[in-house]
Amino acid sequence: LKQVFNKDKTFRPKRKFEPGTQRFELHKRAQASLNSGVNLKAAVQLPSGEEQNDWVAVHVVDFFNRINLIYGTICEFCTERTCPVMSGGPKYEYRWQDDMKYKKPTALPAPQYMNLLMDWIEMQINNEDIFPTNVGKCRE
């Protein structure tokens, strides 16, 4: 289990909402509704009086944290040797392109692809222009 939480590996610590902020309160509401066994459609509905962009931002960050945790538990079983291709079954192969190092879609081993993907998502989430930390300032 220590390998899963090794900071040098692909697992990243959860991104947290600062207590006392409106986003923290929205996060608590989202967690409470998802853990209460209620209708999922109702659980993700925008609470009255809240900004839709803020509500979406909270769920995007929560989703990233959950995917990151799941990936952290399986990454030791998928190595460059055991997973030489990032694929979605035999019919689909995912290729990485980022317009910096990989200017054209490039086949990569699954762990390398996932590391690049998780880094890219984390950069997006940490970008104040996309996910501002001040509530009510998300871009449209």
Automatic annotation (TrEMBL):
Protein origin, superkingdom: Eukaryota
Coiled coil start-end: none
Keywords: Kinase, Metal-binding, Transferase, Zinc
SUPFAM superfamilies: Mob1/phocein
Gene3D superfamilies assigned to the protein according to its UniProt record, in alphabetical order: MOB kinase activator
Binding site residues for Zn(2+): C78, C83
GO molecular function: kinase activity
Pfam family, one: Mob1_phocein
PANTHER family: MPS ONE BINDER KINASE ACTIVATOR-LIKE MOB
Name of the protein this chain belongs to: MOB3B kinase
Lineage: Eukaryota, Metazoa, Chordata, Craniata, Vertebrata
